[in-house]
């Protein structure tokens, strides 16, 4: 409790030092011990200002600055570490104090000590006002504590219905997709309906010896390649290509009466 | 409340106050409140029965009503206003791919059996898909096919034509038009079913 | 509703009906309902403002009251009956002093930036404090301020107004007196002639 005594005496630097009661001393002591409880230097200043027991508008900023500096000094003596912003405030208040005590320098454009002090007073008053407003707000009848909402909430029933939509384009694209789906598979030649030129050539070579008269190349298609359009088409192409090959070899003659007319071949007699 | 000494005035004030209290209690409660529970929560000497009567009369014909169920009391929305607490949320969703394809096949090939649809799509068609299209009013049953088993066929409806702005299913663009429109990028392999036009043209080229 | 051809009668009936409907809608909801939402749920042409006025008058002094918070409306039990309803009280997190002060500063000074809150409190505001207020649904982000850095601002929500029984931020206790006393002014420290660097330096001096 020795430290406490020190602090109590430390508060004597204030203007009310002479009339300090035991209670005041205790309060000042508590200030030091509870320094953690302060919400920053402005809060501390506000608390200190209450010891002046005057309206905040009449407060002596000079006295307040001295109180604060005294507080910081005591904290230093007690080896209580103060956060940096408390020290910054102390430095600023020391500066303010010198401004207030020294006659103003007419050459400088810097704000006067009075202006700075007035602003600090404004800040304190504003903080105090916000603190009171906060208390008033919290004291209002509050929802869930004093005032209540309907307990049996009747929820809105939502009837969901889904409307499906498709456009003509969707429809056409879907059809195109279905009809071309095979094309998007890895490409595998379907040889079942495909006659190669070699096949046609082998067949033609074997048969051409008998072809004395002009005949449509389709006559040379195997029976099972005549009907189905896809097979017939492949046979036509392969046999035509084979015919050209044989014509080149000089084994057959080839003719077509007109555009799109049947292509005919016959054996070429070699003299 | 009032401090008037006249009994009548005091009585009127306390009667109104009792009604207010019951009102607040019932309003704030999540569950209907039993008469006994109300009595327990109200100041002693409150004429609860009268307060409930007053309250019931006050809410008569209002948007909410005081309702009794068994021995408990609660505020409930007036039955005729129930519709205000309903919301009809209509969600527009794109028709699924399976449904769109099935619909397209029916439109292009109608009348078409389920087996035929499956053959064209190359996958089985779920009952739900066709049912959905029927539900939507875009597809209906056509005549049975005169083939073994007499399978049902599906055709598109007037509603379908309406929705897609077609005057007849024949107005559906053909594959060539689809291709011209860039909807069919690849040349189809020759001779695939449904490409009669193409096959025709080539066949005639080769003199078929 | 009535089929009477007389306009006056019809009007009176539809007026009463509108009031009933708004009553039902607001009674059904524990949360305040926005005016726009009410309008959406009511038949077209309903005079919503009048219905709300009628309803407010009807419930004046009752056990439940019609209350406005911002642009939303809700029925709430009368504040003087809180003692009856203690059992419905919900345990709320006790707010720290920093949180209640920050909340008050946001309410009275809104829209307000974090730097401004810090200047008023003379101490830095932890992120957690504002986050907690946002979490509780009492504070939300407002528009960015048109000053260098375009800092975000904070404003109070309709949930805040609802919780504290305020119709609008203008109804905050003592607001007028505070404004008259100049305590809501954004008064820069002397010597700050809009030179931002200077301001910065002094702000940090004041713990901003």
Please write out the topology.
The complex is a heterotrimer, with one copy of chain A (271 residues) and two copies of chain B (208 residues).
Chain A: H1 2-10, H2 22-33, H3 41-49, H4 61-77, H5 84-101, H6 113-139, E1 157-165, H7 168-179, H8 197-208, E2 215-216, H9 229-249, E3 252-256, E4 263-267
Antiparallel strand pairs in A: 2-4, 3-4
Helix pairs in contact in A: 1-2, 3-4, 3-6, 4-5, 5-6, 8-9
Chain B: H1 7-28, E1 33-34, H2 35-41, H3 48-59, E2 64-69, E3 72-77, E4 86-94, H4 97-109, E5 112-113, H5 114-121, H6 127-135, E6 139-141, E7 153-156, H7 158-164, H8 175-180, H9 196-205
Antiparallel strand pairs in B: 1-3, 2-3, 5-7, 6-7
Helix pairs in contact in B: 1-3, 4-6
InterPro entries (chains B, C): ScpB_csome_segregation, WH-like_DNA-bd_sf, WH_DNA-bd_sf
Protein name (chains B, C): Segregation and condensation protein B
Region (Disordered) (chains B, C): 181-208
Give a quick rundown of the structure.
The complex is a heterotrimer, with one copy of chain A (271 residues) and two copies of chain B (208 residues). Chain A has 271 residues and is mainly α.
What does this molecule look like?
The complex is a heterotrimer, with 1 copy of chain A (271 residues) and 2 copies of chain B (208 residues). By secondary structure, chain A is mainly alpha-helical. Among the domains of chain A are: 32-103 and 112-139, no CATH class; 197-267, Arc Repressor Mutant, subunit A (Orthogonal Bundle), CATH 1.10.10.580. Chain A is 51% helix and 8% strand. In chain A, strands 2-4-3 form a 3-stranded antiparallel β-sheet, with helices on one face. The longest helix of chain A is centred in the middle third of the chain and has 27 residues, at 113-139. The model of chain A is unreliable at 1-18 (pLDDT under 50). Chain B is α+β, with helices and mostly antiparallel strands and 208 residues long. Chain B has 2 domains: 8-88, Winged helix-like DNA-binding domain superfamily/Winged helix DNA-binding domain (Arc Repressor Mutant, subunit A, Orthogonal Bundle), CATH 1.10.10.10; 97-185 and 200-206, Orthogonal Bundle (Arc Repressor Mutant, subunit A). In chain B, strand 2 (64-69) and strand 3 (72-77) form a beta hairpin. The chains are: A mainly alpha (271), B alpha+beta (208). Chains in contact: A-B, A-C, B-C. Chains B, C: Keywords: Cell cycle, Cell division, Chromosome partition, Cytoplasm. Chains B, C: Pfam families: SMC_ScpB. Chains B, C: It comes from Limimaricola hongkongensis DSM 17492. Chains B, C: Residues 181-208 are annotated as: Disordered.
